[in-house]
From TrEMBL:
Domain Carrier positions: 1-74
Database matches in InterPro entries: ACP-like_sf, PP-bd_ACP
SUPFAM superfamilies linked: ACP-like
TM region(s), chain numbering: none
Gene source species: Arcticibacter tournemirensis
Entry protein name: Acyl carrier protein
Length: 78
């Protein structure tokens, strides 16, 4: 799951996957702007076949947080 999230972040931002480490740091401040983040959310919804409520988007600021969120809503593996 982490690798797929990292790939999505890289595709949207145009930055190498190595820019997106697993540790819980906020990538939205440095690597991903708000428009790109919306594109990331749309791709995550498509890839993981889910819907993320707008009220939850602010929680998804690192690979670990995205992974934890997806597991919390019942997506256990990918």
């Amino acid at each position: 799951m982490k690798n797929k999230i990292r790939t999505i972040l890289s595709e949207v931002s145009g930055l190498p996957e190595s820019n997106f480490a697993d540790e819980a740091r906020d990538f939205t401040a440095a690597e991903i702007d708000s428009m790109e983040m919306m594109e990331v959310i749309v791709k995550i919804e498509d890839v993981f076949n889910t819907t993320i409520p707008e009220s939850d988007i602010w929680k998804l600021t690192s690979i670990r947080r995205i992974e934890r969120y997806l597991r919390d809503i019942g997506i256990s593996s990918f």
